[in-house]
Hints:
The complex is a heterodimer.
Chain A: H1 3-12, E1 17-33, E2 36-54, E3 57-63, H2 71-84, H3 116-133, E4 137-155, E5 160-177, E6 182-191, H4 199-212, E7 222-228, H5 230-237, H6 246-250, E8 271-273, E9 296-300, E10 303-304, H7 311-317, E11 325-326, E12 330-331, E13 336-338, H8 345-351, E14 354-362, H9 364-367, E15 374-385, E16 388-401, H10 402-407, E17 409-412, E18 417-418, E19 423-425, E20 428-436
Parallel strand pairs in A: 7-14, 13-19
Antiparallel strand pairs in A: 1-2, 1-4, 2-3, 4-5, 5-6, 7-20, 8-9, 8-13, 9-10, 11-12, 14-15, 15-16, 16-20, 17-20, 18-19
Helix pairs in contact in A: 1-2, 3-4
Chain B: H1 4-14, E1 21-37, E2 40-58, E3 61-67, H2 72-83, H3 117-134, E4 138-156, E5 161-178, E6 183-188, E7 191-192, H4 198-202, H5 205-220, E8 223-224, E9 228-234, H6 241-248, H7 253-256, E10 278-281, E11 302-307, E12 310-311, H8 318-324, E13 332-333, E14 342-343, E15 347-350, H9 357-362, E16 366-378, E17 384-396, E18 399-405, E19 408-412, H10 413-418, E20 420-423, E21 428-436, E22 439-447, E23 450-458
Parallel strand pairs in B: 8-18, 9-16, 15-22
Antiparallel strand pairs in B: 1-2, 1-4, 2-3, 4-5, 5-6, 5-7, 9-23, 10-11, 10-15, 11-12, 13-14, 16-17, 17-18, 17-19, 19-23, 20-23, 21-22
Amino acid sequence: MNFDKLFEAASKKGIEDLQVYFNDSNEFDISAFKGELDKYTIASTQKLSVKGIYEGKMGTVTTEVLTDDVIDFLVDSIISSAKTIESEDEVFIYAGDKEYKKIEGLYNESIYDVSAKQKIEDALELEKKIIEKDKRIIMVQTYYGEGSNKVRIRNSKGLNLEKLVNDAMIGAQVIANDGKDQRTSFEYIRSNDYADFDYEALASLAAKKAVALLGATPCESGEYEILLSKEASASLLMPHVSMFSAESVQKNISLLKGKVGEVVGSSLVTVVDDPFMKKSAKSGAFDDEGVATSYKELIKDGVLTGFMHNLKTAKKDNIKSTGNGFIGRGISPTNFYIKPGEYKHDDAVKSMKKGIIITDLAGTHAGANPISGDFSLQASGFLVENGEVIRPVALITVAGNYLDLLKDVTQVCDDLKFNFGYVGSPSLLVKSLMISGL
Amino acid sequence: MLERKLIKKVLREALTTNADFAEVFIEDKFQTDATLLSSKIQGVNNSKEFGIGVRVAKGYHSVYGYTNSPKEEDLLKLANDLAQSFPGEPVGIEFSLEEMKVGNLHPVKILPSTVSLEEKVELLRRADKAARAYSEEINQVSTRYQDYVQNVWIANSEGTYVHDTRVRTRLAIASIAANEESKQTGFYGPGGHYGFEFYSEQLNIEEAAHESARIAVAMLHAEECPSGKMPVVIDNEFGGVIFHEACGHSLEATSVAKGASVFSGKKGELIANPLVTAIDDGTIPNAWGSATYDDEGNLQKKRVLIKDGVLTSYMIDKLNAIRMNDEPTHSGRRESYRYAPTSRMTNTYIDNGESTFDEIIAATKLGLYAKKMGGGSVNPATGDFNFSVAEGYMIRDGKIAEAVKGATLVGTGSETLLRVDMVGNNLASAQGMCGSLSGSIPTDVGQPTIRLSEITVGGRGGAI
């Protein structure tokens, strides 16, 4: 599409300011199962999101048809959408910041030096490796996926930004069965550097995790000291990220509202939003509104310091946007995590008198309520007594309140790991949570 | 839309190596979304989606690619790239594309494109007003309107050539009730395979808004749910999500074909209490999960999955049928051209039994009444599932007692079906979005009121 023509047509029909956000993506995904290639997908897609200010309101439209003949449709949609909107919030097209940080390592060409054939062979080999680890492993599915994304933002105020990122991941889904019980594990590594893909380490870990839970049964109900593993902690943090959004605060649905400067967690807890992290597809020098991003510690040593903002919420609070405005997601984080400490996971286990290591939480999208902070979730893991792992446990639920949990953190481990949504956490030792089982 | 001649050319290009099947899926979709919050329209967005997916297979092995570009050179290149996965001589498949025309089996009366945005957003205002009028404790209401027209053309090297138009609309209402101690959300989101007539002929918007507000207010005054093992009565409509998650996913060929499901190889066996008959029916007129064709170009069907407790059918797509050596059940679905199709549910429900709602409650001495279910998830390999209860009450001495919040149901699919010990006669369905391998698709869940003899309930109210 000829963007000049679009800008011209918009201006002619009375659109005061216009911004285009253009996305050009490529994708390659494979999966191996039972010694065969199970999935192979290649894709190339483009998408255009346009927003424009008409009579003081912001109209939006998106299209995957990118020929010049949709220009009239785009302009008309923006106008009709703007005319319908009643919200009196001030709207903006951003002229840009003076400076945007140069971030190295967001695009790595070398990932394409490894041939597709080699990547397929590696995925097949990974499956074989895992199967050979343990007789009780009955099934393995392995994955390799890579994608690149080129973003271009251009607006009528002269802003013209471009970024290019890529990333890739390898992963394995493992099913173990000992004749009586069946358990699964999923492990992965994500990077945009193929050299980071340690297939051997991944195979060992995935195999170990799948068999470790075999024979798991519920434990007795009651209050337990909890070691929340890095994966479980990240998946619990995920639904609560919205508490840190200024939009939630302004809508009065954030539990953190009015608490800036107050202690909201243990002094060991620091929560970070880091747009400059290397090898992450979520990193970038600007957000989708064209605002320069910034590194932030939203909770620092247990004290709430602020919220994530976009242009709209920042204006309401009379501050500068933190560069967290993203299309379709309102305000959202970049790489969001609980900062790792120095404590070792193994020491945490040894320190527990009677507790549970929670390795997996299920159903966080439904069983956690970020508005109240209450959660009640299906969990599995291991029962610990006097510093020793006694047996695996499953089909239990763990319940609590997320803010109480942050306050009850007694140790933060050094094993930070990110999940698929680029939300990460180290393992956390927590004073107590309610477990219901038998 | 692409010329039939070009579609044929792309299919032929995909078969220039040793592949024995090729398919083209073309999608042209127009969607309108509008949201209201704080009694004001906040956002309205139109979106035009267009893309083409090409699938090439040999036996059950398949490769998939997609693009937004309708250009002949791009499509032929995509087909050729995919074909390289099956090196060897062409199989020599001859086919012609004759369009199958059965008409749209789920006709709509008022196409969304003929209705003004103003009329659409007015529905949001009505819902907002009604929800706020329900109680002074409602302090925030968020409503969302959605409609779309999805046109698809599906052609394959077996001569299939169909065109289908799916028109769907949904109104989602979330109410928040608050007092000094707590905030609780109530949600109600009715929809269907309808045009704008849905809002005049099928749905009473004020009643729907009241339902959303009623749940929020009820839960505001609820106590923390006690935990432990107990009988649970799960009500109709969205209560059917338990079957969808706990059993439905494990009956999809996606997990069955690979032997990864607890129900693999169990056809003909008793897997549920004989009171249970469960059905997946993509032909229910104008239901949310219905369509004339599945996304592989086959006419939708009604599938009896469990008959009187015995497993009678899986849900099977074309390629998994080859892997399983079973018949396809026309269950191939996908969110969009960005996904290869695989076996998915449509409108799934447990069929009516004979008990009345009152009989089921009266027969329960101490337990939980889950009036509205929230979401949940399941691990198909173990069958372990979890659901949140969006609105719950204790049952004491055969009567519905105090409201309880924060309850979670945890169990295993295979055991749960055997533990259904009462089935009501008040079958009703509700709408949901189901996420799996081929994306997020509209599905109905449903059931009459049922009782599970015992299941683990999680909550913060101490041991029962």
